[in-house]
Design brief:
Length: 360
């Protein structure tokens, strides 16, 4: 096998090597059953144990109280953009959204199909280079919930702490779940597509407060009701078995590493290395404003688009892969999720210094 390179991809993204090695074995023969994990019935004892352990570890790592359900759903984070308002809004109901990027905007579009939407804040005119402070907006008193995206994957911004509100919070945590500690109790729903910080694509984890399960309108199709999945332990239909299994392996890896608090410390160290490199020169310019900087996706520009293209080309040749920024902001983006090794960040910083010396 060739040496693994450093994969800065924004998602799907790098996974711990030991997780990949274990998955490679289990895909052929799981628990010595003479068949692979993805060939097994989702109702088998072996798979039920996998799903149960995955949920238990997630509950432990995120300190999820007993009055929340953990669901493993399909359709990606994007299906949640609609499923949330489908279940919680309706005629005459309002929800408040903070527009901090493409993923928030897409959620707003879906919510408008099912109720009234108050966009309490937008940072669109500054290419989403920051997130608001609590004092920057007011929430409509009639609102059912305050919705926001904790980490804006494309722009490299992140809420430094969770907004405080009288209203129930709902958050898309697709690109920073399990990266830092937070108190889940002000939240009605927290959800994340797995493919950034938790595992492979194919499963979306939805953590929902139990009392919200009964709010869905009667005429909502069965598969779109959270209650359907909650009542059936996410096995109303065939769940994404392989993705759930790999998420389970990643959670075990995270526990071994010391849990979310230990991970948060490492994430801060990794991000600081890159931000220090950016701040120490005028050659690189960070996209996100100070106070809104993400510890997961670090976005930056070079003096010209030509230099950016050359930077990405040379980095790729050195095994620093996936640094091209999203087409809507251009420039470069280094995604350094939980599983991204610190040595890879150090290698990028060394390359940045070298590249600047040759080209400034
Ligand atoms: C990637 C991403 C999504 C979209 O996820 P899908 O699983 O592809 O639907 C949504 N929200 C955020 C914050 C993301 O980073």
């Amino acid at each position: 096998m060739p040496e693994r390179i450093y994969n800065f991809s924004a998602g799907p993204s790098t996974l711990p090597e030991e997780v990949l090695a274990q998955a490679a074995k289990d895909i052929v023969n799981f628990n010595n059953k003479g068949m692979g994990l993805i060939e097994m019935s989702h109702r088998s004892k072996d798979f039920i144990a996998v799903a149960d352990e995955c949920e238990a570890n997630l509950r432990e790592l995120m300190k999820i109280p007993a009055n929340y359900k953990v669901l493993f759903l399909q359709g990606g984070a994007s299906t949640q953009f609609a499923m949330i308002p489908m279940n919680l809004l309706g005629e005459g109901k309002t929800a408040t959204y903070l527009n901090t990027g493409v993923w928030a905007k897409k959620s707003i579009k879906e919510a408008k199909l099912f109720g009234k939407v108050q966009v309490a804040y937008t940072s669109e005119e500054s290419t989403f280079n920051h997130v608001p402070k609590d004092s920057d907006y007011t929430v409509d008193p009639a609102s059912e919930y305050l919705y926001f995206v904790t980490n804006n994957t494309i722009y490299g911004t992140q809420f430094p702490s969770m907004p405080k509100s009288e209203k129930m919070l709902i958050a898309d945590m697709s690109s920073d779940i399990l990266s830092r500690e937070f108190d889940i109790t002000p939240f009605g729903i927290v959800y994340a597509g797995a493919q950034k910080n938790m595992g492979p694509a194919g499963v979306t984890v939805v953590i929902i407060r139990e009392d919200l399960l009964d709010r869905a309108p009667e005429n909502l199709p069965t598969m779109f009701k959270y209650k359907t999945h909650a009542d059936n332990g996410s096995m109303f239909n065939t769940p994404p078995c392989f993705s759930i299994y790999v998420v389970g392996l990643v959670l075990k890896w995270l526990k071994k590493l010391g849990g979310v608090a230990a991970m948060e410390k490492i994430n801060k160290e990794k991000a600081a290395l890159l931000y220090n490199a950016i701040d120490s020169t005028d050659f690189y310019r960070g996209h996100a404003k100070e106070g809104s900087r993400s510890n997961m996706n670090i976005t930056f520009n070079l003096p010209t688009p030509e230099l950016e293209a050359q930077f990405i080309k040379e980095a790729t040749a050195l095994g620093l892969d996936g640094l091209k920024g999203h087409r809507s902001v251009g420039g470069c983006r280094a995604s350094i999720y939980n599983a991204f090794p610190k040595a890879g960040v150090e290698a990028l910083v060394a390359f940045m210094k070298e590249f600047e010396k040759k080209n400034s």
